[in-house]
Amino acid sequence: MLQRLTTFILIIFCFSACKKESTVCKDENAVNFNMEDQDGGATCVFAIDINEHLFGKWKVMYQLVYKLPSNTTLDALISDYSALTYVEFEDLYEEDYPLSEIEWAEFITGELGYTYSEFETPENSSMFMEIEYTTDYKVKYYNNFDYNESLTHNWLQFDYDHLAYYTNNYIASEEMDIVELQILDENDFHYRRVEKQGNEKFYEYRRCVKNY
């Protein structure tokens, strides 16, 4: 009897100690709170903290600007072209296979006959662009310390990692000027902005550093 009881206790203990860990995020501050983790873990995903880090001036260190037809996206076009193998691509287009989003943008805009511009600010340059996000929800642009009032927008948080820019009243269903935050912390701000312009989309990718 004692042996059976001991075995039963061991089974209960093993079941409790060896049970599979939760695959659901339990942190109420996470954007995926109470959601199943598809990778089998319990990883919590947190929103980019706009209120803590965004406000202030950012020095633009790199920018890429290009246009595409409004009925497609860069990702969709990359998917189409990348169906070719490296060898097939280089034989057909007689140039190196693109290895980054920036290289793809340069190649695809050239193929479609659109303009493409790229600019990098030298580390110690005294001439640069700044972007300022204010606590009254304005985004302002400065060129070599001169404020460009014509470029001022209002902004609001569209969702947890997107901003919506607008000049008059904001209508969510019609908003096409969206900034996707890729990195935002106390020192770095990387984003891609997409703005619809008739039958075209205007893409603007920028890497910035905090300019205290």
| Percentage of residues in helical conformation | 10-25%
Nearest-integer average pLDDT: 83
What order do the strands of the largest sheet run in, or round the barrel if closed?
1-3-4-5-6-7-8-9
The backbone outline, from C-alpha atoms, is globular
Q: How many alpha or pi helices?
A: 5
Number of strands: 9
How would you classify the helix and strand content by structural class? alpha+beta
* SSE string, helices as H and strands as E: HHEHHHEEEEEEEE
Domain count: 2
Beginning-to-end CA distance, first to last residue: 75 Å
Uncertain runs are 8-20
What is the CATH-assigned architecture of the largest domain?
Answer: Beta Barrel
Calculate Rg over CA atoms.
25 Å
CATH class of the largest domain: Mainly Beta
Largest sheet data? 8 strands, antiparallel, barrel
Q: In CATH terms, what is the fold-level topology of the largest domain?
A: Lipocalin
Strand content: 35-45%
